[in-house]
Structures are given as C-alpha cells and as structure tokens.
Amino acid sequence: MSHTVAVLGAAGGIGQPLAMLLKQSTLIKQLNLYDVVPVVNGVAVDLSHIDTPAKVTGFAGSFKPEDAEFSKAKLHEALAGCDVVVIPAGVPRKPGMTRDDLFSINAGIVRGLIEGIAAVCPNAAICIISNPVNSTVPIAAEVLKKAGVYNPKKLFGVSTLDIVRANTFVAELVNTDVRLVNVPVVGGHSGTTILPLLSQATPKFDFSEDQVKALQYRIQNAGTEVVDAKAGGGSATLSMAYAGARFAESVMKGLNGHACVECAYVPSDLTDLPFFASQVELGTNGIERVIGYGELSAHEKNELETVVIPVLRDEIQKGINFVTGA
User: Fold this and answer.
1) How far is it, in rounded angstroms, from Cα 314 to Cα 311?
2) Using one digit for the tens of pLDDT, what is the confidence trace for 244-298?
3) Distances (CA, A) of 228 to 232, 233, 265
4) Which option is the CATH number for 160-314: 3.40.50.720, 3.30.1490.20, 1.10.8.60, 3.90.110.10?
5) For the whole model, what pTM was predicted?
6) Topology, domain 3-157
7) Helix or strand or coil: residue 288?
8) Is residue 61 packed enough to be buried (19+ CB in 10 Å), middle (13-18) or exposed (0-12)?
9) Can you say whether the dihedral through the CA atoms of 137, 193, 309, 245 is positive or negative?
10) CA 30 to chain centre
11) Catalytic residue list
12) Does pLDDT of 93 surpass 70?
C-alpha cells in the first residue's frame, strides 16, 4: 500500500532534504509540500523531475498576517487525504540558542498546523520535528483534544536523530561497523533530557565510566556541535532530514502491516509523565506497543530520576500551558 504524505515546512533547511529523501520512498504515491514561502512550489517542481513514482505537489501559503485565510486554505489543500504528516516547520537554531529559545515562535507555528490536521486529516500519523519537541508534542496533543480528534497512537515526536547520533558516536569510539550498532535513547529530545542507554547497546560494549560520560555529553550536545560548526549558517538540517525520513518510512511500513521498532517521543505510561521517549512498536494502528526501557545501570537510573524526569516535566507543562492558558 502506498500513502499520501505531507511535509509542512518543506522549503526550509530540514524540509527540502527531507522531501527529497521521501520522494525516493516506494511507499509514497503522493507527496504534498507546504510552506508559507513561494519557493516551495519550485521545490516541488524540482523534485518532480526525479524518476521515482511519487507525485509531488507544492502548496504555498503566506507569512503575512493579512493572508491568514489564504494560507489556511492552502494548508488544508496540502493535508487533504494524507495518511502521514511530517512537520519540520519553524525557525532553526542559531549559535547561542537553545531549543527552548525557539519556543515562543515555533509553538504558535505548530499549533496552527495541528489545527489544520485536526480539521482535514485527523486520522493521519503526525510526526513532529519542530523544536522544542518536548513541548511541541504536548501542544499538538492539547490542540487535538480540543478538537475532539486526539489519537495518542498516532502522535509522534521524532527523536530518531538521537539514536542515529548515538549509533554513530559509539561505532566511532569502538571502531566497528555503525550498521551493527543500536543504542536505545529514552527521555526527551533536548539537552539533558536525552538519555542514551549505553548499558543496553548492541552489540554489548564494556564502556568505562569516563567513556559513558563523554558519550552521553556528546549525544546530548550534538545539535550544538553542528550549530557551532556551521558558525551561523544553520543547524542540524541534513542529519535531521535523514532521521525524519527514516522514521516516516518506519511509520508507513507499520501502517502497511510490517511491524517495526523505533525510538520516539510519544504519549506514554512508562513514567508518571504524560510523554516520554522510548522504543515503540509501530503497526497498523500507529503505536501498537510502548516498550519498557528495561533494567538501567546505576548511572542511567540516577540520570533518569534526578535530571531527565524533572526537566522533562517542566517542558511538557510549558507546552500544555501554551494551549490551555494555565
């Protein structure tokens, strides 16, 4: 079965390479690209010349307040009939910025896009990339609840890049084939809320305490590493596009009945928090099963209890409050 997929924010630094990767997917029959800048139509034409089956259509709204109804109409056109919606829309990080600094702008962008999804394709699997994911996913949930169409099995925060980075950095350290490495990453998708479970990495590695701390620090701060290296020229766009396309592909495989497992930031009861990143089994209903994080090392347990959960709790509440006005 092939799907209709929308990328919201398709003209941006993540959106363009993400759209190109999705154009190559054999699971997509129609790829709809939406943005508030007219170049998105050119992106769609450009991608339409690639010799893969997916058809590509651009939908350009406007960032001008006076064009709000026009942009809403274009968004609704882009969302019509969609099975999967991927959202990289928003402003990118710049040197010195944290993901939290992006909140005031990106929170409003995500709310508007989710309102469109609620109205047009409420049954679609929603994959949120827009930072800060720890807060934007709760925003999406609250908007969907208000509209009466909330399905916790089809709402995802794309934390795949944390796993991609963890696998890469571990493989580099131990000098092995990265394709053989898998490191679960739990918690959230920002700074200290990112908790790589190095004790559960496969193959099994015997890391020293210093290696664990160094790996954890690098995985948690990898986004800043890219922002600093680009020196004002952008954030982690290419690696995020790769991770977003990988996750969307897994979601579509699951919808087609081919169960697979990915880490994602989702509605969860693994802790007393309403959202948590962990391994999830993807299937025809979206999330078929949230997989427990297993037995943690003493270090991981301490990090989870004293750092990850307290910080994540505040970031989740910030997203909820943005919609509820609390």
Assistant:
1) 5
2) 999 999 999 999 999 999 999 999 999 999 999 999 999 999 999 999 999 999 9
3) 7, 9, 26
4) 3.90.110.10
5) 0.96
6) Rossmann fold (3.40.50)
7) strand
8) buried
9) positive
10) 21
11) 189
12) no
